[in-house]
Amino acid sequence: MPRSVNAVASRERRKRILKLAKGYWGKRKNVWTVAKNTVEKGLQYAYRDRKVKKRNFRALWIQRIGAATKMHGMSYSQFMGKLTASDINLNRKTLADLAMNNPQAFQEILKKLA
């Protein structure tokens, strides 16, 4: 009896990886073993960097809020401490957006804290 192999599933699995390798240069796009390694590493980087992206944006928001509060003679930590004490529930993303695009509204928040 001949050996039964599931060629359809194997080909589909290889096609899926080679499709993800589209756009790579040289052997990375069409040699199965090289493409598989490259795609797996790329997926690892993508997973890791989705977490890093969140860290980077939070750091950017903190820098923007800090710069805006320094213009009004207050430090970032003092501002955040007074914000929580006065029970104003605005997240850093919103505060940074106000500081950049609507300085009058940010100044009003600072006046409420003083």
Structure write-up:
There is one protein chain. The chain has 114 residues and is an all-alpha fold. It has a single domain (8-113), classed as Ribosomal protein L20, C-terminal domain (c-terminal domain of poly(a) binding protein). Helix content is 75%, strand content 0%. The protein has 5 helices and no strands. Helix 1 runs parallel beside helix 2, helix 2 crosses helix 4 (92-101) and helix 4 crosses helix 5 (103-113). It is rod-shaped, with a radius of gyration of 26 Å. The N and C termini lie far apart (87 Å).
In short:
By secondary structure, this protein is mainly α. The chain contains 5 helices and no strands. It is rod-shaped, with a radius of gyration of 26 Å.
Any chance you could write out the topology, listing elements then pairs?
Blueprint: H1 7-20, H2 32-71, H3 76-85, H4 92-101, H5 103-113
Helix pairs in contact: 1-2, 2-4, 4-5
